[in-house]
Amino acid sequence: MKWENIIFFSQVIFLLLDFTLNVNIVFTHIYLLILFFLILFEYRKKFSERAPFYNNIYNA
């Protein structure tokens, strides 16, 4: 499984938990942490699309 899929599924799970627990503080902190990593991976993906040389290093 790719990291993007794992982050997406965990994001959906924590969103559902937030709705059921009426926004518990611990889960919102974890959700914000996951959201931060999602933005980080999206930025890295866009950066690797612009620079194919770095993309080849990641895939090697």
UniProtKB/TrEMBL annotation:
It comes from the Eukaryota. Keywords: Membrane, Transmembrane, Transmembrane helix. The chain crosses the membrane at residues 12-41. This is Uncharacterized protein. It comes from Plasmodium falciparum (isolate Camp / Malaysia). The lineage of its organism: Eukaryota, Sar, Alveolata, Apicomplexa, Aconoidasida.
